[in-house]
Model the fold of this input.
Amino acid sequence: MKEKDNQVLRVLAKQYPSIAAASTEIINLQSIMNLPKGTEHFLTDIHGEYEQFNHVLKNGSGSVRKKIDEEFGNTISSRDKKSLATLIYYPEEKLEIVRKEEDNLEDWYKISLHRLVQIIKRVSSKYTRSKVRKALPKDFAYVIEELITEKEEIHDKEAYYNEIIRTIIRIGRAPQFIVALSQLIQRLVIDHLHIVGDIYDRGPGPHIIMDTLCAYHSVDVQWGNHDVAWMGAASGHMACIANVIRIAARYGNLDTLEDGYGINLLPLATFVMDVYEHTDCSVFAVRTGKNRNRKALDLDIRMHKAMAILQFKLEGQLIRRHPEFHMEDRVLLERIDFQKGTVRLGSGGREYAMRDMDFPTVNPADPLALTEEEEEVMRGLQQAFLNCEKLQRHVRFLYSKGGLYKIYNGNLLYHGCMPMEEDGSFAGVEICGKAYSGKALYDILEHYARRGYYAKDQAERTMGQDLMWYIWAGKGSPVFGKDKMATFERYFVDEKEAHEERKNSYYRLLEQEETVDRILKEFGLHGRESHIVNGHVPVEQIHGESPIKCGGRLLIIDGGFSKAYQAKTGIAGYTLVCSSRGMQLVAHEPFESACAAIVNESDLFSHYLDVETYVHRKLVADTDVGRELREQVYYLEELLEAYRDGTLREE
Done:
């Protein structure tokens, strides 16, 4: 026996000190491998739309309604199915309505409890009793286990179960029990959640989404460029902070920072009222659906402009520090001719007229320099971000549960793209004086993103933070995937040609099988059953574009979850569901509100597209967990042999 294996067996022997204990665990693990695999749920580009996110999470992209249809078929009406689904999604809110409207509340409780128990029996059937037991709510664990477990020794089982439910109603615990059952169904319908990037920006509730994810039972996150910008801001990086606040101002979501995270923006507001009081801010409109009074909206607009100017200054300084980024043409404040009112854009230096030249804090002789007041404001904001406990908790969660990519059950998940040259080869990107491409590029950028938050050495930490900004908007960044971020041009230049952001060649080549095969092979994946799951670039279904690329080998599941994109895409986002029977893409119609869903019992209307149907139902044995279980079984069988031949003694 190899020394390493011998050490493993000695550790294992402490946990399984006898032949009986080891044998029992082998039987347990072997049986688990023959259960159907759990259902995976994929979401991307949520962009702060917390109401729709919460609804899609609650209904499992239609998985709950499917279970209701499977269980009840035509035995209950469509209206009753809708009512049951709404109860499962929003139990507390639905119970409030029922209490006011239902004449025979006890009878309603009895019917609802029976139906919920039937659904739980169905959704728990693919799990071991042990796994279900761990998911049970503490207060009702024993009672729920009794209701969902067959009692062969009881002759009149119906009377036994009916008495349990009658007693729950009689002692006044029915509402709490209904809530517990509904939440358990939500928990069991989806075994694992994948968030393929961009939780933050545009929508009003990323902090609410993050709270939900932090409490979710099983989740991973592939960082999007918007997420990395917030991670950089949480690390104290000023250019990232400026970006985060500017975007919040642009979309009318400064409340997210002030109320959601408790970040004090009063010093910024004071600075803006003083310095930008008489400044032309007409090109800095705020996109908001909220009813804001004129004074508050005017302040938001001025904060929007102030943060944009700070962003362009700080980014220019950063680019000057890093010539290896090859982004000199993005130091745009230095390309303004302040006398002519023009700016030179692109490598050719074509001149464009500026829409706005009213910059009270920009010194034409040194346009990247911050004024004393700007320095003070940025230092205050930096401390506010660094000392925000909630933001730091959320960002630590992103680091612990996330990365730039994920390989899971034979699929490759990433947010943006694999940077490529025109000929389909992997593009080399210079990072700290060395060229990286393919998987190595992802790995080195993730390494520095972690160092930017956790490193103790200040120089290493600063380099990591600068690279987090590069991940956000650099032309070689795999999660950005464009030649530039044309923020400056969209504000200051009328000509639409200047606004164009050229996508990486990846997006032109992704329909070619050899491209997809090359990428999968780069990450160690082979075979027709492996897929790339991708977000970041909204699929314009309204113009006939399909999210299913390369015959189903690559799936772009950004379809406009963010309301800001829905006019462009024609839908309200895609999600992906991968069950033991196959993969299904779900296209969602715009979500009105949680209130409408509760009152009108209107579920999110969705269309389903089959991506792949498995010839044989996938089992746990076919998953990453299955591989781990097989390895455990191997060593347990080795342990059995060691006990039997006397190499190790039983306790």
User: Anything to note?
Assistant: The chain has 27 helices and 17 strands. The mean pLDDT is 92. The first strand starts at residue 40 and ends at 43. Residues 39 and 190 are 5 Å apart (CA to CA).
